[in-house]
Amino acid sequence: MGRLLAEFFKGFFRENPVFVLVLGMCPTLAVTTSVEKAIGMGLATTFVLVCSNFIISLIKSLVPNEVRIPIFIVVIATFVTLVKLIMSAYFPVLKAALGIFLPLIVVNCIILGRAEAFASKNSAPASIADGMGMGIGFTLALALLGAIREALGSGSFLDIPFADGLGAYTQTIFILPPGGFLTLGLLMGFFNYLVLRRKAKNRGGKGK
User: Is 208 exposed, middle or buried (0-12, 13-18, 19+ CB in 10 A)?
Assistant: First the structure.
């Protein structure tokens, strides 16, 4: 149980896909102009990540090493297609807002990376915990970026405008690509600072 919890929580901070591992930068920068799109992409990615990790962990011993990557991609593409169908039926506006980045989940390096590096070498419970943790960590990172960029660039949160006094101070650059890079860079710097500080604290504790 302790190992499963460790695999689950590592994606929140220690191995956060966005701020620490620096994976999935294309959708991260593209869909974080609003909180709604950020959370939608995060949840879709989490679903695909958990399901593909689970299936790959079950079939890993049956897959020839020479064709494992194509087979992993087929498994991932199956669940991405399922997500697209669900969104088309129940969340058509969100699907339209995510655009091309929804089908591009198939080639998201977070999902293929976890399939290759973790699910293909570990048990189903551990792979599910890894997928959930990485997916939620990715979703939280997108939501944080989306909240900052939407608030500063559009003067709103979840498309609900701020009071007129606050909305007057918005800067459009934050919902443009340069603002995305700037916000992401500052947050990555902050996370790196926390990681280095934690490592230094651990070394100091061991020295005592």
Answer: exposed
User: Which value, to the nearest 10 degrees, does the dihedral of the CA atoms of residues 171, 172, 174, 180 take?
Assistant: -160
Is-contact 181 59, C-beta < 8 A?
no
137-193 per-position pLDDT tens digit: 999 999 999 999 999 998 888 888 876 656 667 888 999 999 999 999 999 999 888
CA distance 173 to 114: 34
Q: Report the alpha-carbon distance of residue 154 to residue 204 in Å, rounded.
A: 44
Q: CB-based burial of residue 139 (10 Å sphere; 0-12 exposed, 13-18 middle, 19+ buried)?
A: buried
Amino acid identity, position 35: V
Q: Where are the beta strands (DSSP E) in 43-170?
A: 156-157, 160-161
What whole-number distance in Å separates Cα of residue 136 and Cα of residue 53? 14
Residue pair 45/113 in contact by the 8 Å Cβ criterion: no
- In whole angstroms, give the CA distance from residue 8 to residue 31: 25
Q: pLDDT exceeding 70 applies to what percent of the chain? A: 95
The Cα–Cα gap between 157 and 147 comes to 7
